[in-house]
Hints:
66% of the residues lie in helices and 0% in strands.
Amino acid sequence: MEPIYLHHVEETAKASEAGGQFAAMEAQGIPVPRIRYLFAYKPRTTEHLARFTQEVMRGPSPLSPGLREL
């Protein structure tokens, strides 16, 4: 897969704690979703967005999680 446009973000993310997960995914031929690099680049900045997304997607709702994924 081609590197993301923001090369510094990708390099910094690969050097972070999540870098091992990224390397394992790539070794298995699984492409790393580009949004994961942004989340790993500045985790303190994105932790609120991650919690919000989890609550919206996985919290109580009349819609099933599968339907919310659409």
